[in-house]
Amino acid sequence: MDFQTSIGVDGNRLSALLARLSSLQQLRLSPAVYGVSIPGSCLAGVARLGQLTELVLGGSWQAADQPLQQLLQQPLPLRLLKLRLWRLPVINLAALTRLEEF
């Protein structure tokens, strides 16, 4: 699933919507236009996607450092992870034991 936003989005609402896609295997999240940020709080919903094997995060994110670190501490079945963020925090990938491509 590709999700691009060009307007502000509520992180908690997006988190809840993402969590409902329980069989989702591929997800790409990025803002569609310059100046729009995706709230990091939506990553809580991504953490509940137990079949997610490919995750691509791009562009500008708001308050995402801690939610991203919490997401990557989950034992997700990710084989591919691409972080094309404007600002990449220090991350720990130790929990992603199936990761083949970063």
Descriptive account of the structure:
There is one protein chain. By secondary structure, the chain is an alpha/beta fold. It has one domain. Helices cover 21% and strands 25% of the residues. It has helices at 11-19, 43-46, 65-72, and strands at 2-5, 26-31, 38-39, 54-59, 61-62, 80-85. A four-stranded parallel β-sheet has the order 1-2-4-6, with no helix packed on it. Strands 3-5 form a two-stranded parallel sheet. Helix 1 (11-19) links the parallel strand 1 (2-5) and strand 2 (26-31). The two termini are 19 Å apart. The mean pLDDT is 87.
Number of helices: 3
Largest sheet: 4 strands, parallel
Shape field: globular
Q: Uncertain segments of ≥5 residues (pLDDT<50)?
A: none
Rg, alpha carbons: 12 Å
Task: Write a brief structural summary.
By secondary structure, the chain is α/β, with parallel strands linked by helices.
Strands, helices and their partners?
Elements: E1 2-5, H1 11-19, E2 26-31, E3 38-39, H2 43-46, E4 54-59, E5 61-62, H3 65-72, E6 80-85
Entry keywords:
21% helix; 102 residues; 3 helices; alpha/beta; two-stranded parallel ribbon; 6 strands
